Amino acid sequence: GAVVSQHPSWVICKSGTSVKIECRSLDFQATTMFWYRQFPKQSLMLMATSNEGSKATYEQGVEKDKFLINHASLTLSTLTVTSAHPEDSSFYICSARETGAGQPQHFGDGTRLSIL
Amino acid sequence: EDKVVQSPLSLVVHEGDTVTLNCSYEVTNFRSLLWYKQEKKAPTFLFMLTSSGIEKKSGRLSSILDKKELSSILNITATQTGDSAIYLCAVGFSGNTPLVFGKGTRLSVIA
């Protein structure tokens, strides 16, 4: 089945650091990938839709300069949290759907980000 | 505004019990309904339903969609402690429109 790989699984770093998270579709091509954020005991919150070869579409309230998204190929999207602060600590999850009608969306394992 | 509502929000059962989780939706341009299971990491895909009345089954889990009632149920029979998780329901649309998720049902199965 379709596999989405997300790396790293967890990051602990100091305030002010920029952190890059990678999301790869391993056995299929994905023109669109999605980035979510999840707080403890809450559901997934969509941050942005990443489109291959074009700019990402951000949800209302998500700072595009803070959360930089790049989708340079059909199998890789990256999310960079720039100048991270403790309030950016969260569980970030990427997701991708195989191109073509009627395909489910699959999720990476998520990245737990802790900013000290 | 598109809306997906799951009930109950949480549930505690004993091993061996059968549970039914509910998902209802109010959306425009419905295409599919998906169920996911989330344990400690990210959600894993369970089912995708597009046609009304056709049950999908995987082991002890099954699900069915009722487009007339704008709802779906997820059944788990003979529950085990390993079924403890958050079960998420989501509605899918055509094209690259993102899924809309419900808040999830937290299921706890105790021995």
- What is the N-to-C order of secondary-structure elements of chain B (H for helix, E for strand)? EEEEEEEEEEE
* Biggest interface: A-B, 23 and 21 residues
Approximately how much helix is present in the residues of chain B? under 10%
Structural class of chain A: mainly beta
Please summarize the sheet with the most strands of chain B.
Answer: 6 strands, mixed
What's the end-to-end separation of chain A, in Å?
37 Å
Shape of chain B: globular
Structural class per helix/strand content of chain B? mainly beta
Poorly predicted runs of chain B are none
- Assembly type of the chains comes to heterodimer
Gap from first CA to last CA of chain B: 41 Å
Number of strands of chain A: 11
> Beta-strand level of the residues of chain A, as a percent range?
over 45%
DSSP strand content of chain B: over 45%
- pLDDT averaged over residues of chain A: 91
The radius of gyration over CA of chain A amounts to 13 Å
**SS element count, helices of chain B:** 0
Mean pLDDT score of chain B: 95
What do these coordinates show?
The complex is a heterodimer of chains A (116) and B (111). Chain A has strands at residues 4-7, 10-13, 19-25, 32-38, 45-51, 57-58, 67-73, 76-81, 90-97, 105-107, 111-115. Chain A has 116 residues and is an all-beta fold. By secondary structure, chain B is mainly β. In chain B, the strands form two sheets. In chain B, strands 2, 4, 5, 9, 10 and 11 form a six-stranded mixed beta sheet that branches. A five-stranded antiparallel beta sheet of chain B has the order 1-3-8-7-6, with no helix packed on it. In chain B, a hairpin with a 2-residue loop joins strand 6 and strand 7 (61-66). Chain B is globular, with a radius of gyration of 13 Å. The mean pLDDT of chain B is 95. Chain A binds chain B through residues 1, 6, 31-32, 34, 42-44, 46, 49, 51, 93, 95, 97, 101-102, 104-110, and chain B through 32, 34, 36, 41-45, 48, 50, 88, 90, 92, 94, 96, 98-99, 101-104.
